[in-house]
Design brief:
Elements (H helix, E strand, L loop, with lengths): L2 H4 L1 H33 L5 H32 L2 H19 L5 H4 L2 H18 L1 H10 L7 H29 L2 H6 L4 H17 L6 H9 L6 H8 L1 H31 L5 H28 L2 H23 L4 H19 L2 H4 L9 H31 L6 H16 L6
Helix pairs in contact: 2-3, 2-4, 2-6, 2-7, 2-8, 2-10, 2-13, 3-4, 3-6, 3-18, 4-6, 4-7, 4-10, 7-8, 7-18, 8-14, 13-14, 13-15, 13-16, 13-18, 13-19, 14-15, 14-16, 15-16, 15-19, 18-19
Amino acid sequence: MSPLKSNARVLTASLVGTAVEFYDFYIYATAAALVIGPLFFPSESQTAQTLLSFMTFGLAFFARPVGAIAFGHFGDRVGRKSTLVASLMLMGGSTLLIAFLPTYAMAGWIAPALLCLLRFGQGFGLGGEWGGAALLAVENAPRGWEARFGSAPQLGAPLGFLFANGLFLLLGRTLSDADFAAWGWRIPFLASALLVGLGLWVRLRIGETPAFREALEKAPPPRVPVGLLMRRHTAAVLAGIAGVVACFAIFYLATTFALSFATTRLGYAKQDFLALQLGANSFLALGILVAGYWADKASAKVVLGTGAGLTVLVGLVFGPGLGSASLPVVFATLAASLFVMGLAYGPLGAWLPTLYPVAVRYTGISVAFNLGGIIGGALAPFAAAWLASIGGTAYVGLFLTLAGAMTLGGVLFAPRLKG
């Protein structure tokens, strides 16, 4: 029997959780680009509304490292499975509650305060999600299949994006702008309950990973995993952070920033651009599949380094492509960018665990992944908007060039794990 078939439940548990993660984050990112500013902040300045909306988007990124430490602590001491269930419940619950929030017109400053609280809860839960999902897959993988198993949670990204983008596209085609702003934007947040329920059902039916059980038999878990991690593996944490930056930068520039910029500054219709992004998203899935197979044949380091180098080049053409005033050129730009993201994102599930021993692995990969997300993800829309304001669309992709160079440095200078 194929390893993929014999481990189908484990791989599904890894994929579904990450699909929920990206669905939750992308429905908020899309709402932030379209309606959050006008609904939750004062109307005196449209520019201020947009910036404050993206600030609430970025807030969850800063909550993620806090969640990474908290969930990593229990993931390395108690186990991967139970920690993953708890992180999914917090993440999904916070997303669902956003659907019931009052707007600024209803409750004044209480509305954005509650929104920020739930965004923090979303980010806190997300901090423990990806690391556990990656370890669930990789630590159950047969020898020689680590990268293909490690790409399973990565495939949750295009899947979550597909559900989120598709639902917003459907709502945009069936609701008027007034109805969407009045109540339609709440539907994607309500729908998240279905994905969370599926994720919990799958995860409650799996066991602990063999690597974690074996580590417990050899020695008791560290009392404070993050302390041990920072004392003995600081260089690996820094390399891991750098190694994550490129994929986050590409994703949030090609999705959140591109949607906001194209529909406000470039004049594209919202539904047309959402449909275009939906098509380009398939190239992300293709890139992840190529990366997983290639990394098992070569190495995760080689594939990630290649993805980082290509990110540097994508950054040079991203801005001119986005501002080309030609939808086919824009599509080609986004498709190429997301394919390269697949090469930089697909190997992470297999590469990051090689930097840390089992005893601190959950904490290590979670901290690295989420701190890298702040640099590559939370800063990306701000950096791109600022670069566009001083140099037009030609400057937008320079952030990608810098992000790719940072990831390439992390790959090249990552320390080898002893033993």
